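Worked example

This section walks through a single chain of length 314. The input is the sequence exactly as stored; nothing has been trimmed or padded.
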Amino acid sequence: MDQLTPPTRPVGVLVMEYGEPATIEEVEPYLRGHFGGQTPPADYVAFLCERCRRVWGADQGISGAQAVFTALAALLAESEVGYRVVFGARYWHPYIDAALAELASEQIADVVILPLSPFGSHMALRDYQSAMERARAALPNPPRMHLIEGWADLPGFTATVTENAQAALERFPAESRGEVVGLFIAHSVAESARKPEDAYRQLMEESGTQLASALGLSSWRSAYYSAEGPGQWLGPDVLEAIDQLHQAGARQILAVPISATYDNVELNYELDVRMADHATALGIAYERAGAPNAAPAMIVGLRDLIIASAQVAR
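Given that input, the structure is written out below as tokens.
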């Protein structure tokens, strides 16, 4: 964006994510948030602990979301206007309600809300919005909130996804690179006849088409991970997609987390354990692209997006 004019009064910025534990000791209390405050089943705690250890290689990890937040807050701090930037998570500390209360205590009248989810599904946005509404209702003088609902077409984001995918593609032998099949993955979401996720699926397909073209891939498909709970979820699952590609003759697969912003346990377990192990068992050469994390191009783009939203808020 060119020559963005900062707002004339301080604006709060709430960077939101779902949240995840940072140590093995945090797994059980973290899961309580998913079980309505009740003690989670021991087998589920053990299940998530094992996943965390497989991804981290130790008993603690590094927050990719925190790295994005830190880089974005530092860039906004260079603005002429004092943006007050805080971090809030849906299911872990610091919670969204505490982050919003902190801004309200400083008499900030307007808050730009940035979910670290570029592809805004009905399910994800509904979850974030319900958390924000509860947090706002608990405040005596709540600020006005301005939600950025999606930013999948942000140039800095798409450029970084493409750059990371290109780097992974180049790890395949040059002589067989033309045979690589792209597998572009995103988090699955529940859908129903009443609230289908057609827009989310369409965005995946459009983004996949653009990425495949930029990479020069002649063949690709989309797939989804982490379908949990009852009802219908977007598919196919990533392992089902690998099986289908293998049956169709694919022997080299490039996996790209096309809708991810940062590394996290859920994503990395899918890419580095579940998918990688399955591909290896089938004799498929497998590479995966990295998530954007705190890539400068994406951080600059998010900074500009926040400033533009703040202009509307003032």
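What to look for: The first strand starts at residue 12 and ends at 17.
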